[in-house]
Every structure is written in structure tokens, then in C-alpha cells.
Task: structure prediction
Amino acid sequence: MRQDLIERYDLRVPRYTSYPTAPHFSPAVGGDVYARWLSRLDPSLSLSLYLHIAYCAEMCWFCGCHTKATKRYAPVADYLDALLVEARLVARALPSRMKVDHIHFGGGSPTLLKPEDLAQTLAILREYYNVTLDADIAVELDPRTADEVYVAAMAKAGVTRASIGVQDFNERVQKAINRIQPHDVTARVIEWLRRHGVSAINMDLCYGLPYQTVDSLLDTVDKAAALRPARLALFGYAHVPWMKTHQKLIPEASLPGLAERWAQYEAASERLADHGYVSVGLDHFALPDDDMAKAHEKGALHRNFQGYTTDKAPVLVGLGASAIGALPQGYAANELAIDRYKETVRAGRFPVTRGIAVSGEDRLRRDVIERLMCDMGVDLDEIALMHDVAADRFDEELSRLSALEADGIVMRDGRRLTVTEEGRPLVRAVCAVFDEYLGQGQARHSKAV
Result:
């Protein structure tokens, strides 16, 4: 990509894992509103559950998650107990024992849980909810803290997918982000997973990290691809030290510049294609026979707070401190502080502290943005028809796309938009044109590239 385009569109824009995005949530949505939303759900709908395990063994300096490092298990066990109290509160508020097709353990580090506690948690969830026999149950796994006993327990408890954080295999980069994780440690865990029947494996890589170069990242990509995970995510490191103070431990001088970041993204994407991976959305890659690649090909891919997903459930229930739920009525975000979270749920109250009720206009624009993020294109006439609005509803936004169109980022055919291959890493800038909330308030986001 031309240097002038990189500089022009390197804007701070949302990642669009929701719309409206989290900076626009407000205290207008609290526990009482959330309880009412839950009680009014259609009992025939499917749920997805996200469990946020808000602890890890040590803090990785690049991390943007809400988590706390601990060397003791007692705080983890106490937190898990509170999380299951919240799960019971949600189940009691629902109109029936509703069906669950997807469960995702995120963090933090879910592998900090003892094997018996992970198994017991899933057993309790099956008691509270109608977890289907073929439910997709995913666990974010830290190879540094998982042993084979843990992996075997995961499989026995019904876990079907493991998402493995790698970021980079280069030792210098690992030291700079405080995550020492040799290649053989990751390879060994993947061997255990497959041995015990957990064959659906995701892997996270990251570009733009301190001391990373194109060559070092390509070496990481080659090593990762040789392990043949079904899915790979290639995230751009978001340096937001004003939000995550531990990121101040990373010297800014060690971070690659804008042109180098783009070169890393481009080179890694091309190398993954060479290894047989299909590009999915902005930053995901999948083997051609994986469900994510198939969903992308059919235009059936979705996006939620965990990123790209094949999950079609209209209700996402977030459990745990900082977890966010997505319901047909709107978004509900939990208390960030762990102690206040525990105190609230143990008092029998929902820990929701902020959120937003979505309007018809929000749903309309959310569909436009989701299709752009997932399909790298959208038919605005089709979206307008689905929402029963005038076909010319977005003509003002189309006029504002003229600069992006002139620069070859997006192409127009009437009211059909297609993000070009060169424009793929800038799709968030295209989405921002349709974002009515952008510019309101003081929210600061990560860069587009």
C-alpha cells in the first residue's frame, strides 16, 4: 500500500465488535434493565455464554484485557464461585431453561482454573441451561500453564475447541512483552489436545509488537502454520498506555513504525495464503475445510466481542467482571472491579453498570458495519429492504466515501460497496463512515492499521 494512504487513513477508529461500540455505553442500562431484558427474551432463542476468567499467572505487557495477575489460587476460586452465582441469577431471570449452543471461556487465563473446577463449572452450566449435545465449547488456553492432565480434563468435560495465545515465537519479542513461551511448549500442548480429541484449534498471532521485523514475523508465521491450527488470527498490537498502564513498560522506541506495521501485516497475510489459509474478514485466516472459511464463503460470518465467529445465536450472555452481553434489546456490560463485582452478585443483584439500548437505526447501521467487516462489502439496497427503509437512506454516507473510492480503498457499483484487497486493512475506516456515534464523547481507539 502507498505510504501516503497508510498515513492518511491511520485513524483511531473502533474495532467494531459491536455497534454502538462500548465507549458509548452509559449507566442508563443497569441491573434492573438487564433483568427485564432477560425476562422478555423469546424462549425459543438460542444463547451463547461467555465466561470471563479475570485472572492470569502474570501480566503480559501487550495485553489489552481486563485481568489481574495472581500467584495464589484462592482469589481465583472465590471469583469462580461468584461467577457461578451470576450464572444462576441469569438462569432464574430467563423465561425458561433456554438452549445454549456455544460456551466460551476467556480471560485472563482460563487455564488458571484447576481441572476439577473447570469440569464442575461446565456441569453446573448444564444444570442451569439446556446445553446442547453438540455445543461448541471453547477455552482460551495458555500453553505455559496447561499440562496434559488439564488438557485431558478439558476434553473429558466436553471442551471442543482450544484457542491458543502465541503472539510471536521470537525470543527477543517475547522478553519485550513479558511472555516467554518457547515454540516447543506450544507444540507440545497442541499434541496433547489432538491426542485427547480436541482437534479444533485456534491460534493468535500479533504484528506491530516491540522489536518485531518482517523477517522475524514470517518465521513465526511459518512455525505456526506448520502446527496446522484450523484458524489463525493476526491481530495488530494496540498500544493504548492511557488505558492499560502496564503497556508503559514497553518502550515506544521499540515499536515498529506505521510503514513497518503495514509491511508486517501484508507479508504475514501473503505467507499464510502460501500455507493454504483462506483470508477471513480483516484479520482471521482459516483452512478451507474449517467452518469459519465455509461461513465466510456463504456470507454467513458474524462478529461479536470475541471477534469473528460462526455463532448465529441472537443472545450472548456475558458472565464475570467486565463481561459484556448482547441481547436483541441492547448491550449490557458488567462491573470492571472484581471485588465490587463479587459483592454485587452475592447480594443477589446483576452486576451490570453500563450499556445501551439499541434503536432501529442502530440495528440498521450495525448490519451495514457487520457485513463490511465480515464480507469486505455490502449491498445497501439489500440492507435497506431488510429494514424497510428507503433505498436512498445512505446516499449522504455514499458521498462521504468519495475520497476512499478515489484512493482505491473501496469500489462502488450503485449502492453496492466492495472493499478492495488493498483496502482490506482499512475496512474499519470505511465502517466509520456509517458510524453515527463516532466523534461523540472523548473515546480513544486503536489505530486502523
